[in-house]
Amino acid sequence: MNVVHGVTGMILLVLWLAAFGATVFALIHAVRQRPDAFTAVDKMTKPIWLAILAGALVFLLLGISGFGMLTSFIAIIATGVYLADVRPKVDEVQRGPRW
Questions:
Q1: Which of 22, 40, 58, 80 is deepest in the core (most CB within 10 A)?
Q2: Which distant-in-sequence residues (6+ apart) come within 8 Å of 33 by Cβ?
Q3: In the chain, beta strands by DSSP E
Q4: What 3-state class would DSSP assign to 42?
């Protein structure tokens, strides 16, 4: 029975590390972007996204310390929205379309 709990714990740790890395990456990306790029693509402003991603990072840290998986899910969803929707459009408006 300990082996099952050990394997499950390791899987959850790897998933948490991936979520943590993605959130840190998204936060660093958001910090480095121009503020007008967010409004140019009709997304929330840069300070709002910085607050959302910083909150996601805090939620992930709370999730690993035992406050439940709900906080981790909220953080993963917020990070996923930024990486899948906001980041590509902000990059495109600053670099131009990729052809």
A1: 22
A2: 46, 90, 94
A3: none
A4: coil
Look at residue 1 and tell me if it is in a domain.
Answer: no
Q: Is residue 31 part of a domain?
A: yes
Q: Taking the CA of residue 43 as centre, how many other CA atoms within 13 Å lie in the half-sphere pointing to its CB?
A: 25
In whole angstroms, give the CA distance from residue 14 to residue 37. 33
Residue 2 lies in a domain: no
DSSP-derived secondary structure letter, 86 = I
Range of the domain at 82: 15-95
pLDDT along the chain (99 residues), means of 10: 76 91 97 93 94 95 79 93 95 78
**Location of structure tokens 């714990």:** 9
Residue 74 lies in a domain: yes
- Backbone torsions φ then ψ of 96, nearest 5 degrees: 95, 165
Q: Computed from CA positions of residues 55, 61, 67, 80, in that sequence, does the dihedral angle turn out positive or negative?
A: positive
